[in-house]
Amino acid sequence: MINNDVLRSIRYMLDLSDTKVVEITKLADANFPIEKADVLAFLKKDEEEGYQECSNQVLAHFLDGLVFYRRGRDESLPPRPVEKRVTNNVVLKKLRVAFELKDVDMHQILADAGFPISKPELSALFRQPGHKNFRLCGDQLLRNFLKGLTLRVRGNG
To answer: Angle, to 10 degrees, between the axis of helix 36-43 and the axis of helix 18-28?
Structure first.
């Protein structure tokens, strides 16, 4: 899925201001170079003037920051390295951690979005890439997960 779409979805889901997106991104690394103007450019449609592609580095910092924003930072643990490449599987994992979701929650979220999947299909998404049962998370699955999570967070009204 396109990084800008993921950022747009999460921003809408949590009703975050552009300034809040910058603050959350900086939770992962206070020195990370991002400004409100960058966020505005990421949120534009790709045919709009001033559109800027959201890099893997920006999205990785935002997702890590989101985990700290939602759950707090455990100072006893060493900082985790920021992902170099953000795949749909990484986005799914980070959202699972940030929202403290269990398997049953994940199944319910996908079912609410009209995209039910089996237990083995779900667990395959969280395996290490080298594992024989690893499965790539497709755009459609991630899009439906974001839709279902938005329904859960924002309510159906």
So the answer is: 110
